[in-house]
Amino acid sequence: MTIDAVGLTKRYRDVLAVDDVSFRVAPGEIAALLGLNGAGKTTTIRMLLGMVRPTRGSVSLFGRPVRPGARAVWARVGHLVETPAAYPELTVRENVGLAARWYGPADGRAVDAVIRRLGLEKHAGHRARTLSHGNAQRLGLAKALVHRPDLLVLDEPANGLDPAGVAEIRQLLHELADVDGVTVLLSSHLLTEVARLATRIAVLATGRLVWDGTAAGLLAQARPRLAIAVRDRERAAIALRAGGHICEEDGTGGLTLTGERAIARPDEIATLLVTAGCPPTRLVVEQDDLETGFLRLAGAK
Ligand code: ATP
Question: Are 156 and 189 in contact (CB under 8 A)?
């Protein structure tokens, strides 16, 4: 396993920022930590990177326990956590060069290659303080990638980028995973964005892991249902149950069916209700959009 987190817990006085979170990321996967603001994503990432000491639990990277001094591990990890920091008076090239030297002897070609890959050639000679937000984010990524890490950890990489920038980052991360075999762990609060990128998604809500599975599995959570409005709800419910359907009251005076048969054949349900003397005034198959499904998972109102 590239990442193996077991029972990670972080308490700040009376705030349980992360509560007993375990997950694993296999080599070559693009995994995402998904959650609303304050869900505990940054704290989890900081524990994975040895920047914050867990109150309980442990992390291994590449099968070795994470410790601040374990340099052999850190040489294989690139990260971008929160605002990308750079020396404002140094140029883009000098900043990337410094990051490269942190890991070993300077390699000018690797520096140029990563600057090209992030589309920063035009700015290579500009001071970091003159960069737009999007380009500062690209510089942060260039610094994280210059030593060709096996694992890339990114906290909200799409933050502050315009849609074209987000698409570019998505393309780059796909390429890194598919072509270079880099394992990627990123955090985000945008389900739609993450669903297009990650093969594995772990959802955090108020510090707890509430879902861990494939992107496809998470999307399937947004289940379709048949929503029915009738004048006599009780009579309709009795008729539906007699017909073998499980139905629930929807809280607004209507009925909801989630059985596969009802969804596949709403016309049968309509006929059944008409025959029972309570024709539907409305009958429609509904499905949560992704964000609604995610909010439901995250337990938000
Ligand atoms: P965001 O996207 O807003 O950064 P997040 O999911 O990354 O959210 P965290 O930053 O990990 O969430 O914060 C989780 C909880 O822990 C929050 O309630 C936050 O206020 C609290 N917290 C984080 N760091 C500290 C700290 N150093 N001291 C006290 N509380 C903290």
Answer: yes
